[in-house]
From TrEMBL:
Organism this protein belongs to: Dyadobacter sandarakinus
NCBIfam families: lgt
Keywords: Cell membrane, Membrane, Transferase, Transmembrane, Transmembrane helix
Binding site for a 1,2-diacyl-sn-glycero-3-phospho-(1'-sn-glycerol): R148
Name assigned to this protein: Phosphatidylglycerol--prolipoprotein diacylglyceryl transferase
Membrane topology value: Multi-pass membrane protein
Family: Belongs to the Lgt family.
Gene Ontology molecular functions: transferase activity
PANTHER family the UniProt entry points to: PHOSPHATIDYLGLYCEROL--PROLIPOPROTEIN DIACYLGLYCERYL TRANSFERASE (PTHR30589:SF0), PROLIPOPROTEIN DIACYLGLYCERYL TRANSFERASE (PTHR30589)
Length: 279
């Protein structure tokens, strides 16, 4: 007997009715989960700042840097890696709605840039680039879990056909035939949730003595090794990827994994001082 899961979840939670000529406004699961990642992540960073005696007044600035750098990086990355012709013809597409494309590799580049800009004026407070980055990856992993679950609620980024008993038939996805597919979004969401707890456990063990770059390295290796593997179970996002042995997500993941391995090696090397400020 073949078993599978019929997935017919609505991407909308509710619709706010028209008011004074504005609306109606749909409230979608994806947007709510995206925002929840930042809000819960902010509370995690408040906890970390308190435990390590950092200035809580910096939390709002850090959150703002992360929101802007994540969204802009993900948007620019989507167009740069997947639709470069749109980016060069009409750069305003990056900031104009409906914000239909977000690339995780672009988000990584944006976040690294945002953390650099945030930390360069706060090194005197002990908030070096790696001090902030090693702790922020906890919240980034959690945000990734929420975002991928949002993709599931949108019935997007679906997997390839499968006969596993937990295969999903995405009834609201009209692009593919209604046959059981890997719930690749759920695989990635669960993986990011697990990583969140692993990273928090590492920080909880070391706190202020966390080896510099260790948590960033673990994050890069975990997320992008699994991303590379999960791509074999997913449909390509763009038509041009069908001509490649590896798709764009896999190609971009390889250097990030190698960088993560380097960070872990550096963090574990006794020859390198762990608490040196990064300039």
């Amino acid at each position: 007997m073949i078993s599978y899961i019929l997935w017919d979840a609505s991407p909308e939670i509710l619709t706010i009715p028209e008011f004074i000529g504005f609306g109606p406004f749909p409230v979608r699961w994806y947007g709510l989960l995206f925002a929840a990642g930042f809000l819960i992540g902010q509370q995690i960073m408040i906890h970390i700042f308190r435990k390590e005696g950092k200035t809580l007044e910096d939390i709002d600035a850090l959150t703002l840097y992360m929101v802007l750098s994540t969204v802009l990086g993900a948007r620019i990355g989507h167009f740069l890696f997947y639709e470069p012709e749109v980016l060069f013809k009409n750069p305003l597409e990056v900031i104009l709605p409906p914000y239909a494309g977000l690339a995780s590799h672009g988000a990584v580049i944006g976040i690294i840039t945002g953390l650099y800009l945030y930390s360069r004026s706060r090194q005197a407070k002990g908030q070096t680039f790696f001090w902030v980055a090693d702790r922020m990856v906890i919240t980034i992993a959690l945000g990734g879990a929420f975002i991928r679950f949002g993709n599931l609620m949108n019935s997007e980024i679906v997997g390839k056909p499968t006969d596993v008993p937990w295969g999903f038939i995405f009834l609201r996805n009209t692009e593919f035939l209604k046959i059981p597919r890997h719930p690749a979004q759920l695989y990635e969401s669960i993986s990011c949730f697990v990583l969140t707890f692993i990273l928090f456990a590492i920080w909880n063990k070391y706190k202020a003595a966390t080896p510099r770059g260790l948590m960033v390295g673990v994050f890069f290796v975990w997320v992008f090794t699994l991303r590379f593997l999960y791509e074999f179970l997913k449909e390509n996002q763009e038509a041009f990827e069908a001509n490649y042995a590896l798709n764009m997500g896999q190609i971009l993941s390889i250097p990030v994994v190698l960088l993560g391995i380097y960070f872990i090696w550096q963090a574990k090397s006794p020859r390198i001082p762990q608490q040196t400020a990064v300039h």
